[in-house]
Amino acid sequence: MRSLKHRILIMLLGSLVILSASFILVLGYYMKDRAVTAAMIKAQADLATCGEIIETKYPGSWSEREGELYKGPLKISLNNDLVDHLSTLTGDTVTIFLGETRVATTVRDSNGERAIGTKVSANIAQKVLKDGQTYVGEANVVGQWSQTGYIPLRAENGNIIGIFYVGISHAYEQEIITRSLITMTVLGLLLTIIVALLTWFFLQRVIVNPLHNIVVGTREVATGQLTQKIKVSSAKEIGELEDAFNQMVEQIQSLTGKINLATNTNLEDVPIESNIETVIEKINGNEITTESTIDNDFVSTPKPLWRLDSPWFNGEEGLPKGLSKATLGQIVNFLQVTRRPISVEEVAEGVKMTRVTVRRYLEYLEQRGILKSELKYGTVGRPVKLFMPF
Fold first, then answer.
1. In whole angstroms, how large is the CA radius of gyration of the chain?
2. Number of compact structural domains in the chain
3. 248: alpha, beta or left? (left if phi > 0; alpha if psi -120 to 50)
4. Dihedrals phi, psi of 377, to nearest 5 degrees
5. According to DSSP H, which parts of the chain are helical?
6. What CATH number does residue 336 fall under?
7. Diameter of the chain by CA atoms?
8. Which end of the chain is more exposed for a tag (fewer CB within 10 A), N or C?
9. Does 378 reside within a domain?
10. Dihedral sign, CA of 366, 370, 375, 376?
11. C-alpha to C-alpha distance for 261 and 256, rounded to whole angstroms
């Protein structure tokens, strides 16, 4: 059976794991939108960066000559070195269109070849070529969806003659999401470990150790070794348990002192040797020690509380259903040995039976007039019912 400390720790760690998993799941959905936004921002920045590089490296205006695209004196059509260089700098796919047709690109088709001669999608052509606007967003690029940026290329007279494009694949978005989730998972794991260690320390110091001290004190009381009160520093509930335990110790010590005083007084009045001889003679002669002889004889021979051959015990009147004569005899013998007010729990522990079973037999003896009961009230908790002979 797991200890209380382990149960609390497992419950707490389980809650943390569930909370962390839920947080990471929500974070994943949130990061998906953030990754798309980050890709769009990158596309806008890369469009501006590539435009500045082209203008700086290749001065002059855009123009169309004999069906080819030029930037100043430089021919751009089939100039893959230019788009490869820009792609290396940005990490994007790069394409330059003449009209709506790709004339230089790093985009590959399904065969792995550069998609020279393929056309831009109709909605992009409408927005960029005809409306003259910049487009940033998701678009279908040769059968694959990417976060893209398109800007119109204008000739010296202001006419739009082409398009410049950069594209960011979904792998970039997945990388952002993956890195974020890994970071949060590591942080969550570290936080869980820290919380587990703090919880372990708290349980050990505030609950486990104080309870252990009380258990040790209880065992010392049972063996007569406890000489002083226990002291624990813990929560309010544990403190109340400490107070109740110390009150019990005080009562036991007080009762023990009274018993020792009575025993010493009797032993001083009667010689030990004659006392022992008297007791032995009475045991051999099957005499029953009476209350008057206890004051004059050795106190270890108790007066029987009742005779085991009484009618209520020997079966002449019969026992109630469910009660056993053998079990009743065992409980009676234990009561005759203890001869003091005693609770159900103490009898159950002494005869090794359940409290429910013992309570039935004690209540039966009370009904027969053999025992009487009274409630003992403490400073905390419920009153305890004690059984004692008449």
1. 48
2. 2
3. alpha
4. -100, 130
5. 4-57, 80-90, 122-124, 170-202, 209-223, 236-269, 272-284, 291-294, 311-314, 325-338, 344-351, 355-367
6. 1.10.10.10
7. 143
8. N
9. yes
10. negative
11. 9
* CB contact at 8 A, 319 and 332: no
- Domain that residue 48 falls in: 4-176
- My answer on whether 33 and 171 are in the same domain is yes
For the domain that residue 24 is a member of, what is the CATH number?
Answer: 3.30.450.20
pLDDT, tens digit only, all 390 positions of the chain? 556 667 777 877 787 778 777 777 776 666 666 777 888 888 899 999 999 999 988 889 999 998 999 999 999 999 989 999 999 998 899 999 999 999 999 998 888 899 999 999 889 999 999 999 999 988 888 888 888 999 999 999 999 999 999 998 766 656 666 777 677 778 777 887 888 788 777 777 777 777 767 676 666 655 555 555 566 555 565 666 666 666 666 666 667 666 766 665 554 454 544 444 444 454 444 444 444 443 444 344 455 555 544 555 544 456 888 888 889 989 999 998 888 899 999 999 999 999 999 999 999 999 988 899 998 887 666 788 999 887
The residue out of 176, 205, 235 marking a domain boundary is 176
Q: Among 316, 331, 318, which Cα is nearest to 370's? A: 331
3-state SS, residue 188: helix
Sign of CA dihedral 286, 365, 258, 214: positive
161/372 Cα distance (integer angstroms): 112
Identity of the amino acid at 225: Q
β-sheet bridge partners, residue 376: 384
Answer yes or no: is 357 within a domain. yes
Domain-located, residue 368: yes
User: Of the residues 138, 158, 176, which one is the last residue of a structural domain?
Assistant: 176
Evaluated on CA atoms 336, 342, 344, 346, the torsion sign reads: negative
Which residue do the tokens 């359940």 mark?
354
Query: Which of 211, 200, 201 lies closest to 234, judged by CA?
Result: 211
Statement to judge: residues 157 and 12 lie in one domain: yes
Answer yes or no: are the C-beta atoms of 151 and 125 closer than 8 Å: no
317 inside domain: yes
